[in-house]
Amino acid sequence: MSGVPILIAGLRFATGGITILDGVDATLPGTGITALVGPNGAGKSVLLRLVDDLLAPSAGTIRIGLPGAPPVRRAFVFQRPGFVRASAARNVALALAPLHLRRRERDARTAAALARAGLEGRGGEPATRLSGGEQQRLALSRAWATQPDLLLLDEPTANLDPTATERVERMIAAIAEAGTKVVLVSHNLGQVARLADDILVLSAGRAVEHGPTRQVISRPSTPEARAYLTGELPWTSFAAAC
Questions:
Q1: Is residue 174 located within the same domain as residue 139?
Q2: Where are the beta strands (DSSP E) in the chain?
Q3: Does residue 65 sit in the same domain as residue 155?
Q4: CATH code at 53?
Q5: Domain of 137, in residue numbers
Q6: 85 or 232, which is more confident?
Q7: 60 and 40 in one domain?
Q8: Which label site among 22, 60, 82, 211 has the fewest CB atoms less than 10 Å from its CB?
Q9: Which helix (H) or strand (E) segment is 229 a member of?
Q10: What is the pLDDT of residues 157-214, one digit of tens each?
């Protein structure tokens, strides 16, 4: 297994007396796009935050990357990305600051990030005044500029119209094709069918099914996965999206 595999064993997370994840076991491949799906409250976003060390598990382990390999560089893009009250270019440059780049390289990466986001010539505009789709593209491109090994996305197109969603999906696919491992939380099963190489289905805090996208879509092997997938989208149209 190459790239940035993610090994999850006996993962449990509880807070305020409520158990959100209850013994999750999964091995995510080190390359491509993995989609985390399941009903509301299944624990998808919590699992994503645990992978990024934004939360600490109550029990169990997460091992990211190969033994003996350098530390994995991670980036996280939220459903509603945050920006400081500064220009789009400044927001990208601030994300690059921890890398201690020479000014020329920092400026080059910032310009490339704006171009990838389709914001050439608009780097001086306040990031907070961009449209929702532009902000999400900027957030993705900002994360990409840091050259992460692992990119974690939490519902990146939840509030976007179809045109904006399509542009964001193209960027996500390009990031994965460039070699970054992507883990994506999405309720948009059409999007999952278009983008994901494999699907991990969560239900009531447990991983109930994991496999290649086509296999999980066409032949879900557990009642929980079958109920979720067929309940969210008519079977024929979802299968056709693949």
A1: no
A2: 6-15, 18-28, 33-37, 59-64, 74-77, 150-154, 181-185, 198-203, 206-212
A3: yes
A4: 3.40.50.300
A5: 81-147
A6: 85
A7: yes
A8: 82
A9: helix 223-232
A10: 998 999 999 999 999 999 999 999 999 999 999 999 999 999 999 999 999 999 999 9
